[in-house]
């Protein structure tokens, strides 16, 4: 019995030690999907939400029901994270990552410029009166058979409603699939966490040339 | 003048020998001609190593000089220089081939089949906005409804390596004439360059030469995939 207790204690101690070691070595939260061939590294402490949690807890995304083929996850930083912070002027950064198949219409119509509309239909929202202000010149990206764009916008007006975001989008050569990462928060937060958000965007990787 | 050597002892008389030699020569020539005909390619390659494209046309076709291209208003160097200076799309390579001579070739909607290849350096605006749909309009503005357009077959999509594109076929009827054409076009990943091969002529000519056109388009090869 005493030996058994000792073994349990030793096991618990090793697990704790291992956890501490992993924690010490851990450089953040990995958001990845083998099936979708995508990978994003988030800073430690960010809380990750699956598609259902985001849809349930976020009024903007509850209106955009994800298709079964669509991969979608969100992440929120801060002391009291909640999915509602995504796509909002929150005081702490948030991220959305998505992979989706493109329709035959999108396949024919898709341009580098059109990539910024893949997840959030900013052109339609702008037509409905939403205000998008470009924060930097769009950048075209090419890696192997993938092409993409990097854009940043301020969405909305006013100190309480506007937020800034950066979006990296990749599309495969046949233009049948797109991968999107958006990171953002309030303008003040965006300035404060600029380098952190930059690292998240730089970590966004679509593997195997998206094939 | 004969290079036939003097007869050696025991050889056949010169007349018969000449006849036999003639027969051998004829047979050899016939065999050689036959072999030569077998080796003669029925097609010629047209294209540019510098711009990374080539395709085959029948060996009876000619590829025109810049004089003909200018007469047909396919080349306007002044326009190209202006477009390049303004970072707009402009052709960096153009070739036109047809079975007739350049002097007899009057226009693309005429009775003679042609193959027109162009490589375009895409301008800054096109790099941002060009889609597969837009690629169809690189030579003939099929989306701009210049006349009555009808699709000859459903568009096919191309995705090879880092190239993407379309194969389309249209007939365009305008008050001044009708043109039928088939076109293969691809662009690179960076959307900085487009390669286009179009073949066609007047609709009746197009129908008569369809098998030649299909072969030409099937040989369209693009190797220059970089920006």
The total of beta strands of chain A comes to 11
Secondary-structure content class of chain B: alpha+beta
Q: Please report the first level of CATH classification, the CATH class of chain A.
A: Alpha Beta
Largest sheet of chain A: 8 strands, antiparallel
CATH 2nd-level architecture of the largest domain in chain B: 3-Layer(aba) Sandwich
Question: What's the average pLDDT of chain B?
Answer: 83
Which CATH class of the largest domain in chain B applies here? Alpha Beta
Strand content range of chain A: 25-35%
User: What's the architecture of chain A, going by CATH?
Assistant: 3-Layer(aba) Sandwich
What is the domain tally of chain A?
A: 1
Mean pLDDT of chain A: 85
State which percent range the strand residues of chain B make up. Answer: 25-35%
Notable traits:
heterodimer; A: 211 residues; alpha+beta; Protein Transport Mog1p, Chain A; 3-stranded antiparallel β-sheet; 7 helices; 30% helix; disordered N terminus; B: 227 residues; 2 domains; 7-stranded antiparallel β-sheet; 10 strands
How would you describe what is shown here?
Chain A has 211 residues and is α+β, with helices and mostly antiparallel strands. Chain A has one domain (28-210): Mog1/PsbP, alpha/beta/alpha sandwich (Protein Transport Mog1p, Chain A). Chain A contains seven helices and eleven strands. In chain A, the strands form two sheets. In chain A, strands 3, 4, 5, 6, 7, 8, 9 and 10 form an eight-stranded antiparallel beta sheet that branches. Chain A has a three-stranded antiparallel beta sheet with strand order 1-2-11. Chain A is globular. The termini of chain A are far apart. Chain B has 227 residues and is an alpha+beta fold. Chain B has two domains: 11-40; 43-222, Mog1/PsbP, alpha/beta/alpha sandwich (Protein Transport Mog1p, Chain A), CATH 3.40.1000. Chain B contains seven helices and ten strands. The longest helix of chain B has 26 residues, at 14-39. Chains A and B meet through helix 4 of A and helix 4 and helix 5 of B.
């Amino acid at each position: 019995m005493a030996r058994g207790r000792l073994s349990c204690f030793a096991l618990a101690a090793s697990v704790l030690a291992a956890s501490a070691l992993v924690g010490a070595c851990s450089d953040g939260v990995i958001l990845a999907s083998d099936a979708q061939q995508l990978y994003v590294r988030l800073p430690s402490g960010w809380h990750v939400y699956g598609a259902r949690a985001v849809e349930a807890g976020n009024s903007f995304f509850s209106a955009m029901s994800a298709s079964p083929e669509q991969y979608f996850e969100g992440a929120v930083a801060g002391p009291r994270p909640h999915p509602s912070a995504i796509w909002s002027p929150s005081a702490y950064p948030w991220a959305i990552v998505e992979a989706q198949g493109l329709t035959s219409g999108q396949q024919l119509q898709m341009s580098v410029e059109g990539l910024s509309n893949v997840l959030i239909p900013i052109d339609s929202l702008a037509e409905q009166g939403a205000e998008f202000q470009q924060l930097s010149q769009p950048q075209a990206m090419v890696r192997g058979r993938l092409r993409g764009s990097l854009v940043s916008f301020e969405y909305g007006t006013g100190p309480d409603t506007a937020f800034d975001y950066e979006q990296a989008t990749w599309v495969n050569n046949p233009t049948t699939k797109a991968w999107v990462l958006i990171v953002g928060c309030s303008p003040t937060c965006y300035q404060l966490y600029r380098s952190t958000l930059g690292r998240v965007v730089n970590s966004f990787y679509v593997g195997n040339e998206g094939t | 003048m004969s290079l036939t050597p003097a007869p050696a002892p025991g050889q056949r008389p010169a007349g018969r020998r000449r006849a036999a030699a003639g027969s051998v020569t004829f047979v050899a020539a016939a065999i050689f001609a036959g072999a030569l005909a077998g080796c003669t390619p029925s097609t010629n390659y047209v294209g540019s190593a510098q711009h990374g494209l080539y395709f085959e046309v029948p060996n009876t076709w000619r590829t025109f000089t810049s004089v003909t291209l200018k007469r047909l208003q396919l080349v306007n160097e002044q326009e190209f220089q202006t477009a390049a200076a303004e970072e707009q799309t402009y052709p960096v390579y153009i070739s036109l081939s047809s079975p007739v001579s350049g002097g007899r070739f009057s226009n693309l909607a005429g009775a003679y089949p042609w193959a027109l290849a162009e490589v375009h350096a895409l301008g800054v605006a096109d790099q941002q906005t060009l889609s597969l749909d837009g690629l169809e309009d690189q030579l003939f503005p099929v989306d701009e409804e210049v006349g009555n357009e009808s699709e000859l077959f459903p568009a096919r999509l191309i995705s090879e390596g880092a190239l993407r594109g379309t194969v389309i076929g249209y007939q365009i009827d305008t008050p001044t004439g009708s043109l039928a054409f088939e076109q293969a076009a691809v662009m690179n990943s960076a959307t900085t360059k487009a390669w286009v091969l179009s073949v066609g002529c007047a609709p009746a000519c197009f129908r008569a030469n369809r098998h030649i056109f299909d072969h030409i388009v099937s040989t369209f090869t693009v190797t220059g995939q970089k920006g």
